[in-house]
Amino acid sequence: MNTEKDFSPLTPNIVRALNDKLYEKRKVAALEIEKLVREFVAQNNSTQIRHVIQILASEFALSQHPHSRKGGLIGLAACSIALGKDSGLYLKELIEPVLTCFNDSDSRLRYYACEALYNIVKVARGAVLPHFNLLFDGLSKLAADPDPNVKSGSELLDRLLKDIVTESNKFDLVAFVPLLRERIYSNNQYARQFIISWIHVLETVPDINLLDYLPEILDGLFQILGDNSKEIRRTCEVVLGEFLKEIKKTPSSVKFAEMANILVIHCQVADETKLTNDLIQLTSMTWMREFIQLAGRVVLPYSSGILTAVLPCLSYDDRKKNTKEAASACNHSLMKLVTPEDDEDEEEERAIADRPQVTLDLDGIVQVLDRHLHDSSTGMMTRIAVLKWLYHLYIKTPRKMFRHTDSLFPMLLKTLSDESDEVILKDLEVLAEIASSPAGQTDQAGSCDGTDNKLELKVPEGTKVGQQHSTGSKAADSSPSTPSMNSYFYKFMINLLKRLSLERKLLENRGAFIIRQLCLLLHAENIFHSMADILLKEEDLKFASTMVQTLNTILLTSAELFQLRNQLKDLRTPESCDLFCCLYRSWCHNPVATVSLCFLTQNYKHAYDLIQKFGDLEVTVDFLMEVDKLVQLIESPIFTYLRLQLLDVENNPYLIKALYGLLMLLPQSQAFQLLSHRLRCVPNPELMRTVDESRYMDSKQQVASKRASHTQMDYNELLQHFDRVQSKHLEVRHQRSGRASDHPDRKLM
User: Fold this and answer.
1) Which of 97, 130, 462, 689 has the most neighbouring CB atoms within 10 Å?
2) Is residue 336 a contact partner of residue 393, using CB atoms and an 8 Å limit?
3) Pair 177, 216: CB distance under 8 Å
4) pTM score, two decimals?
């Protein structure tokens, strides 16, 4: 530095001392400067004051020589002390050169700069607030300084500045937030500690409403929550907790919509191996739960994103129990927000002027649900939740949901092969709702394969499916189905049987379970009537026989079919007779099942006629096993009435003949012994006669009257149909055996 240069009003001694390498000499110079400035203050000579500050800044603090810079810093601090309360008039000139020194490569110089600024701020107090952003920016850099002395000095200055902000009511939050938003994304731990500490302080100041600007810093807060430092994470948890408390107190002033997507992002864990990510996910999920409960329908436009985040968490194990519970609460609360008003068209929505326009993102929701169903890695509880959502949407928004049915239907059918019974149950509920919703009525006939389906379907009694709809629909004049069974019902039955045909393991392991549940969800008569109608046209005769056997077992043994069995038992109505004929024609694919159907309906003569034809059939081991099972069923509670009818020998001769026919078919087996023993118990008809012959005749007439409705059926035609079906089966078996003989290398088992 040129010592001969004119630095007046600074004396040459002051200039020389400011440039000295010894701190004590620079301090003496600072005292002289303080004395000089005080004189100027007393004289109210602001021109000279500014001139002194300008010299100290440009010629010393911003000098190329380190000792000069140190002298300039202590001189600026001395000026501030001398100015006292008037320092606020010169703060820009005092602060800016000091802040420049914060970037100096010399750690000692950075420390002196910190010390100088501390003295300046201490004197000016609240007057420094207009320059807060500059001070904050500088301090945020020093917070990450590698030198411990510099860091310690910056912490003292930081505490002083926090005290000033806390006690003042003139803090400019609007101007500060952009800087805070920028610095909050720092990855340096010390900078993060600095940032989070300031947010914590500002949050506690009554006159500062930081909640209004939370959307701008919330993402950064969740980033800080993932810091490796336990102390930083703990402070950040406290800050977020305080914000959440405030949100609960004043929900009406909270900008929920602006923060919903931020929470969605942080609810999704990118790296599950990091423990900090678990904390982020749990915290954001907790916030999401509160948001949904507090904001209500405001969050509906973000529902697809929320579900994307929430659904996978539902399959977490106990290691993430808290996150799972929070996710479950989110899912439940969000589902409750969907109401029938979300099924209205845009024109209808505009007609309601008073209602706030909140649009449910139904297309997005369905896309998310469909994606989770297609993903083979989706957990069981998540799949169940997806199906619950679909069912809920079909109940609340049926008209809009049926726009997606064609795309959802294949995956819903595929889900029937799921390993979980609970998943299958929920899946069946969705499919049953699709098949029974009035919104599913179309102009096409219910037979979706183009066949002429004249099926008349019954309305389920007491069923919950379809009862919650108020949506208008085209009535039965445009579909063979009643409004409770729409055009998708027949499509469902066709595709279900097709799936059971392609997946024989599904038929063996879950077929009966699926059909029984459908009989509960829909009407058992509809299920059996439609399946019998479809099986009548089935080209795979082996599958048709197996399917009839399955349906027959369900019909004869399942508690769900009690009402249908009673309906078929007496055939007292034309409807029951029609149902019998429909079942019979398909049951002919399986001779033993056909006989059991005749036993159930008390068509004993026809059963006897059928058994007479068994001699012309190919009697295989499987055939005999089916006869064996039928004998076991005859001994079950289902056929109690049949066994009691053996007491009335004269009125039921064909029942006894039919049972003897089964006996003759059986080899000497346990079933043979069982049936033989039963028939030996049949009493002598003479012993069963009563003294009152007229009463006996009345009894015969009552039985004849009871079965009068049977005369409407052409039993000869039914027998001819049985012969035709069995001829087809015989032809197919011959073709198979012919193909086997054409391949000599194939071993016949």
Assistant:
1) 97
2) no
3) yes
4) 0.82
